[in-house]
Amino acid sequence: MPKTRYIFITGGVLSSLGKGIAAASIGNILESYGYNISILKLDPYLNVDPGTMSPFQHGEVFVTEDGAETDLDLGHYERFTTTQTSQKSNWTAGRIYEKVILKERRGDYLGKTVQVIPHVTDEIKAAVFEVGKTADVVLIEIGGTVGDIESLPFLEAIRQIGLELDEAQVLYVHLTLVPFIKTAGELKTKPTQHSVKALQEIGIQPDILLCRAETPLPADIKKKIALFANLKEEAVVSAVDVETIYEIPLIYKKEGLGAIILKKLKLKDRQDDSLAWGKWVKLAKSLSKEVTIGIVGKYVKHSDAYKSLFEALFHAGVANHVRVRLNLIDSDNLADSDPGEALKNIQGILIPGGFGIRGIDGMLRAVEYARSQGVPFFGICLGMQVATVEFSRNVLGLPDAHSTEFDPQTGHKIFLKLKELKNIENMGHNMRLGSYSCILRKNSLAFKIYKQEKISERHRHRYEFNPEFEYMIENKGMRISGKNPERNLVEIVELSGHPWFLGCQFHPEFKSRPLQPHPLFVSFIEHAKRIKIKS
Ligand code: GLN
């Protein structure tokens, strides 16, 4: 059996250079050459996972099939490649330390002093080797920037891996920035030189430098960087700014990144196949028509909070040959203003997921507007809950209807915590996380869209629809079109007689990929396209 290869991706100079997308793009390139890949993210912060962090701090929490709450970069990995990430694909320093401390408490270390080297570094190495069991190539992205105190144990662990394995089995790719300083009219290589030096000081010689720059690096700059970084010029690759992130694998390949990776890892180009991807990117870049979607949410000031959602809308737009223009509306601002004014040029309204009471009143007004004005409406998780509460208040005539998340004492509890629901015992975790199956009702909008009876989608929520109200909402025209068969939980609601109104308890955005756009998003955009803008 050929030996598994490991590519470590580190970042230098500053954060937000797009290391996650760089890692995902390398994965995409390797798959195009016919290799099986696995991707792992190592995050140096101390939270055990990002599940407890605010979306303003950390951006979106990406949920895997098996219910791990992970870094949003895992979303890029899934969208750029065919891999399925899992609990094994994201390790934080907190999770690594938790494991070490548990072992220490159990007495597993047999009286030894427990130390960063070797105990913490061994756990990091174990996480890397575990994820690579079935892959030809494993990509490991190290979060943070080289030079941070907290990333040191991770860098030490990956240095050791380089020492333990064969030379052609390990590759270190370092992403840096080559800024253009306007006043000097020059590209500056010094930050890259310093960052490479910092890596070398801890014993890692990068094999490839990916240099972010506004324009391709001229030959003399490449030469200079190569000299200072102790590399051949071919190992210095320009990573220029592009129109769409999905073009990055194609550009990297053109810049020679694919060829040099194959050469250094002694791998053959088994089948060059980036045709479908290339065609899709070409289409995505050529769209001239637009559709405007209003996102009424509470984290709109921090667009990373809705990463997968925006990507899913983009994929669905390409499938419909339209560019999706996003109008981000802070739901807080809708509470006391006329929603008709804020939403007048919008062809579809989407309320995404969220936690906590802030902004709920504005969302309720947006739903009322969409429902009564026949504007396509898509409610995701919290969006579905708010849509059902609005219906209960304004159509069933229950003005105090609410979720107990927002009003624990209300007389009409439309959504309840899972464990408060009768006949459903505590599932051990107080959130429903990961993939659950759902049976669709025949002749429903959902069934028409998915074209199959049984689907499965990913969840991340605490509250569920209260079955006591099922009959009442159905009787007044809100159909329950999808249910989880094991626990009889409501998964999808829709409105009869409305052009397109659907709320789902799950997060379909996590499963959308460029070449497999999610059917719910595709259908939503298709219907939004038909709405004429009132001017
Ligand atoms: N806050 C809601 C719940 O916990 C919705 C969560 C979400 O939108 N992801 O059920």
What is the highest CATH level, the class of the largest domain? Answer: Alpha Beta
> Whole-Å distance between the termini?
65 Å
Low-confidence residue ranges: none
Count of strand segments:
23
| Ions and ligands | glutamine
How many domains, in number, for the residues? Answer: 2
User: Mean pLDDT, rounded to whole units?
Assistant: 93
What does the overall shape look like? globular
Structural class: alpha/beta
Name of the CATH architecture of the largest domain:
3-Layer(aba) Sandwich
CATH superfamily of the largest domain: Class I glutamine amidotransferase (GATase) domain
Tell me the number of helical segments per DSSP (H or I, 4 or more residues long).
Answer: 19
CATH topology of the largest domain: Rossmann fold
Q: What does the main sheet amount to? A: 9 strands, mixed
Q: If strands are numbered along the chain, what order do they take across the biggest sheet?
A: 13-12-14-15-23-22-21-18-19
Give the helix level as a range of percent.
Answer: 25-40%
Task: Tell me the radius of gyration.
Answer: 25 Å
Keywords:
about 525 residues, alpha/beta, Rossmann fold, seven-stranded parallel beta sheet, 23 strands, binds glutamine
Can you tell me about this structure?
Strand 21 and strand 22 form a beta hairpin. Helix content is 35%, strand content 22%. It contains 19 helices and 23 strands. Strands 13-12-14-15-23-22-21-18-19 form a nine-stranded mixed beta sheet, sandwiched between helices. A seven-stranded parallel beta sheet has the order 5-2-6-1-7-10-11, with helices on both faces. It has a three-stranded mixed beta sheet with strand order 16-17-20, covered by helices on one side. It starts with a strand and ends in a 6-residue tail after the last helix. With 535 residues, the protein is an alpha/beta fold. The protein is globular, with a radius of gyration of 25 Å. The structure holds glutamine. Glutamine binds next to strand 19.
